[in-house]
Specification:
Blueprint: E1 2-3, E2 7-12, E3 15-20, E4 26-29, H1 41-50, H2 58-61, E5 68-73, H3 81-93, E6 102-107, H4 116-123, H5 125-130, E7 132-135, E8 144-149, E9 155-159, H6 160-164, E10 167-173, E11 176-177, E12 181-182, H7 187-190, H8 196-202, H9 205-209, H10 222-234, E13 236-244, E14 250-256, H11 258-273, E15 274-277, E16 281-286, H12 296-299, H13 301-307, E17 314-323, H14 334-344, H15 349-359, H16 366-375, E18 379-383, H17 388-393, E19 397-399, H18 402-413, E20 419-423, E21 430-433
Parallel strand pairs: 4-20, 5-6, 5-10, 6-7, 10-13, 15-21, 16-17, 16-20, 17-18, 18-19
Antiparallel strand pairs: 1-4, 2-3, 8-9, 11-12, 13-14
Amino acid sequence: MANTCHTYRVPFGKGHLDFILPAGMTGTLAESNAVAPPASLEEAVKEALRRPIDSPRLRELAEPGDRACIVFTDATRSSPDHILVPALIAELKAVGVRDEHITLLCGTGLHRPSTPEEKVAKLGKAVTDRFRVVDNEARNPDALADLGMTESGVPLSVNRIAYDADLLIATGIVEPHQYAGYSGGRKTLAVGAAGEAMIAHTHGPRMVDEPGTRLGRIDGNPFHAAIAEAAKRAGLRFILNVVQDDRKRSIAVKAGAPDAAFEALVAAARGLFEVPVPKQYDVAVAGVGFPKDANIYQASRAPSYLFFAPTCVLRKGGVFIVPAPTPEGAGEGIGERRFLETMAGAEDMPSLIAALRKTGYPPGAQRAYVMAKVLEHCSVIVVGSRFPEVVRKVHMIPAETMQAAFQIAAEKMGRKNLDVLIVPHALLTLPVVTPSTV
């Protein structure tokens, strides 16, 4: 619905920002569809485990002497692992799997290691005190198992703890993902527990430039095909995943065989996230929220998601506005540091894109490549960052307030009568430009 005088609200850290559009600007709100969550997530999880899709129950897959590995998401994902992981453990304990034979592997990918506090927040103290909890070590060859190479030349690897397990399980959230089409499912294992070489290849310029590597696309997506093959070779046998709405409420829970359960979750996710909009816009406000707006690396996903939607939501030369406090600056992991270094060393975006296509880049720097493609055509303003100097280093524009950001946008566009798309949860909404919706 278009509005000329309306108060909008977007996430900002663990709180929110309220704003109105300046005179002359017209707003359209794009939000994911409303779906009622189950009355009790705990009961929905138990029911999903009682009735897995295309698979026996987990307790029927397990044997008392099995070594089990549960790969769970890191702090950058809001997966309710404090509910999912204990439920999976209960299934294993029901057939006598011993505590010391259960390892919980945090799928950090190339993000920084999780802190003890984050592990407790993710899993609960009762779990962290009782079971072995470790992080993936993507850069440690001794911690990895070589899974060979795909027909298309992707080098596959996985954490050795996961590979050596008799029963390999993964949690996750199924939501729109810029490369995989939809995240979750096999990706928690296949990327979160992968080695650096695999992450580098799947996030490299050749893969990112593939037309099938697209937000919301599964079929014909080479990135998705690679992670599906990696999960198969690693021996992933069972997943327990959720679909969350923009209030982080789990509205769907599925368990079972990795392929079939994921397909069911994607169907639920499409019905929630994919929203028609009538046209391209001059400005898009891309809301993020905690935990993704803790650093610029993660927060920059919001404009790139809207840029790489099936049709970019902005006209060429448009402006993205991203409210994000970014208390960690660019980010603290090796990937985040590579993103900052790559962006900071660039004179302009076209030359950066050309250089990275020619030389390739290490994992983490793919975010620089993606954002260079965004910034080649659009401007990005970050509102409320605690590190405005870092925002400038990555060729984005800092603004203290939303009103200041709109003023900058008007100056960039050379006029004040702008059409503005407001997407409060840009990582959980996939606007599909559909002119017939006018």
